[in-house]
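Hi again,

Forgot to attach this to my earlier email, sorry! This is the prediction with flavin-adenine dinucleotide bound. I've pasted everything inline since the attachment limit keeps bouncing my files.
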Amino acid sequence: MALIDVTVPDLGNFKDVPVIEVLVAVGDAVEVDTPLITLETDKASIDVPSSAGGRVAEILVATGNKVSKGSLILRLEAATTTVAAAAVAPEAAATSVVSVQAAVPAAVATAPRSAVAADREVPLLVLGAGPGGYTAAFRAADLGLGVVLVERWPNLGGVCLNVGCIPSKALLHAARVIDEAATMAAHGISFGPPQIDLAKLRNWKGGIVRKLTGGLRMLARQRKVEVVQGVGRFLAPNVVEVVGEAGTQRIAFRQCIVAAGSETVRLPFVPDDPRVMDSTAALELESMPKRLLVIGGGIIGLEMACVYDALGVEVSVVELTGQLIPGCDPDLVRPLEKRIKGRYGQILLGTRVTAVEARSEGLCVTFEGAGAPPPQTYDKILVAVGRVPNGRAIGADAAGLKLDARGFVPVDRQMRTSVPGIFAIGDIVGQPMLAHKATHEGKVAAEVAAGQKSSFDARAIPSVAYTDPEIAWVGLTETEAATRGIAFRKGMFPWMASGRSLAMARDEGFTKLLFDPVTHRVLGGGLVGPSAGELVAEIGLAIEMGADARDIGLTVHPHPTLSETVAFSAEAFEGTLTDLYVPKKA
Ligand SMILES: Cc1cc2nc3c(=O)[nH]c(=O)nc-3n(C[C@H](O)[C@H](O)[C@H](O)COP(=O)(O)OP(=O)(O)OC[C@H]3O[C@@H](n4cnc5c(N)ncnc54)[C@H](O)[C@@H]3O)c2cc1C
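Structure tokens for the complex follow:
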């Protein structure tokens, strides 16, 4: 039997690090990643994992020895691992079964050991199975770590799949179909008023969610990620207690990724009444009110307003600040505001709700602000004033995790918290609270946990309001440029000059790109109009790749598409646009 030498991997800047514990004995069976020895650096204690599987034949270090990169730890009698080709690499897919040499993870910091007793120890525990958590769990499993994924809800997928991104987009699709059908009456095709079967619509939306969350369960099984259902809470920096229907268990971990997400903000003066909804209740479409007030003119509130409006409800929106979708450039919001002003009951900007009284005839709402109306009565209210991180609900203190004033868990670019071996990702670490930010952070955390040198260094994260019209932006905004004194020049293309937009019976949209005035590199961009959320990805890619106006303008875009408006905006900036006449500046 061949012997495998297992050595100390690259420890970064550390040399001559003392061994404080030898964790295996001669004859022990070890797997890839089984901790072999514990080292004590001046920053943290580090478990050195095995780079191969087998039986320990000889141990060559003892407690008190000092080791550096390349020091021999032990010799193993070799064992080979057999895995399905598809799980290894695409190029191996031609063979059905291959034998692989396990990857060699670098040494990673592990959670401090504690005196708290546990039922078992796992290499990596992921707390929360939203887009951040399941992505981290799957990526870590693909990199060879043993993963336990703890989730309080019966389904995986978190807010996004169960009560957020996906169900809202299903209903927004239904809203668009209704609105587009109605719009065609002006162009020669009339349909009767829509017959809305709420139960069927709800069931269709639920079916999409079930399909996706069921798919995640299968993906977890395929990767051998163990899902433990229950509410998890730290008892110590290396132990989480999970309380679930199957009982209570204490799981010790070597590393942990906290992905516990966020929850809806409640307004203390709003009564506990079934007619008051949060976004989750609004997605349930339990019944259609005659009059709905949406408190909060941000993305979530306006998306739900769009759905209820299409379903025939008289919707009003009240927003504390002077603008819908605060943070977005005002010019991008204007076409949406114009459209909904013509359709909704009231759009109250710069207005505060100060009281809500539950009466038998409805919910009586009092407003405050320069243009505030007298108290109004609504059949239902949707409170959509933001989300707060779940940092305070996971026993962070017991883990030694520091939270900021708003309850976020501070992290570095490798998604590491202040506690060695504990990472955090997604909504719980800060804005923007978006699913695509959570998934990217999840991958970084998993890769760092597996010893890779990854970090979250995205230049820009796109934001999208899937309203009608859609609004999307990425990178530098004009508002931010003004606040931070960043110089830029702009290229714009109005969609009323886009053949494709006109062929869709829409002319209110536009695309704009912001460029560095010296290098002409794209710094940011925004779009408003149908499918803006799809189109913004190209601008995000251009920012990531450091593209300049010529790169974008010279990229041949298919005709006739809305994507051409991105190229036309670059051409407008370069002065090469022929689809519009832009007078030359003197
Ligand atoms: C109505 C709505 C629409 C949205 N639309 C979009 C959109 O279109 N695009 C977009 O990018 N984002 C959208 N979002 C935001 C998006 O859903 C979140 O940014 C995303 O889900 C965050 O992912 P996460 O993994 O950080 O956390 P979450 O998705 O919140 O997942 C956290 C998970 O942790 C679990 N958990 C929490 N505490 C514990 C505990 N103690 N023990 C066990 N499990 C626990 C929760 O049950 C949950 O499953 C929307 C949100 C809402 C509410």
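The CA atoms of residues 44 and 432 lie 31 Å apart. The chain has four domains: 3-78, 95-263+387-458, 276-385, 463-574.

That should be everything now.

G.
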